[in-house]
Amino acid sequence: MPSSKKSHYKKSIGQTSSGEELWLVDQVLDDRRNEAGIVQYLIQWSGWPKSYNSWEPAEYLSTCRGPLQVYHERKRIKLMKGDSSISSPSKVSIIEIICPHYVFFCKL
């Protein structure tokens, strides 16, 4: 998750009633299972450079259904075509910016 220490990048967009920070997801880039078998997604954060992309457990993305659906549909189409790379078409990026989705994280 982005660190809000750098003032020139966007800060969290708020907090839940339980104190969890809210961050805006630009898009989901990739997925994997870690050593413990937990599904993780590579997240590109809205307003943050790519160097802040981070792997996040699926459980943290419970409110991020739109970008996850777009990612899985792109992946399904690529696999059907026999292409293992998942690129982000510009139309998808525009839709995600216009219709942002939020994700929350437990404090570490």
UniProtKB/TrEMBL annotation:
SMART domains: CHROMO. Residues 23-83 form the Chromo domain. Keywords: Nucleus. It is found in: Nucleus. It comes from the Eukaryota. Gene3D superfamilies: 2.40.50.40. PROSITE patterns: CHROMO_2. The keyword GTP-binding does not apply. Coiled coil: none annotated. This is Chromo domain-containing protein. It comes from Lentinula lateritia.
